[in-house]
Amino acid sequence: MKDSPLFKKAIFLAARRAMLENEMIVREFVEHNLPEYYTEKDMEELCELLLKIFDNDLFDVIMGQKTAEQFEGQYNVRLLKDIEKYAALYRENKKTKN
């Protein structure tokens, strides 16, 4: 999967965020922690999500200010939940290191 054009597209889209926090966390999620159960269709949907989502909305989810469910009907909540869970672990790990 990591050699696929969809994976490379997801990395590219994750790295093109306007907010540094979004870029760092989403890129790491895609590069190193993408759920192993993601299918090609999931990767296509992830790329679509990364194209569609506003950086402010993504930031709110990543920083725990809003939940993925609050964007029901606007974005792919299933994939946004995966990012939300990863971001929560990421934030917790950063707290324990400081």
Give the helices and strands, then pairings.
Layout: H1 5-15, H2 20-32, H3 40-52, H4 55-62, H5 77-97
Helix pairs in contact: 1-2, 1-3
CATH architecture descriptor: Orthogonal Bundle
Number of E-state strands: 0
Largest sheet: none
Note the run of SSEs as H and E. Answer: HHHHH
Q: Quick summary of this structure?
A:
This protein has 98 residues and is mainly alpha-helical. It is built from 5 helices and no strands. The model has no long low-confidence stretch (mean pLDDT 91).
Structure description:
The protein has helices at 5-15, 20-32, 40-52, 55-62, 77-97. The chain is mostly helical and 98 residues long. Helix 1 runs antiparallel to helix 2 (20-32) and helix 1 (5-15) runs parallel beside helix 3 (40-52). The relative contact order is 0.15. The model has no long low-confidence stretch (mean pLDDT 91). Keywords: Chaperone. InterPro entries: SDH, SDH_sf.
Features:
67% helix; chaperone; FAD assembly factor SdhE; single chain; SDH; SDH_sf; mainly alpha; globular; DNA polymerase, domain 1; 0% strand; 98 residues
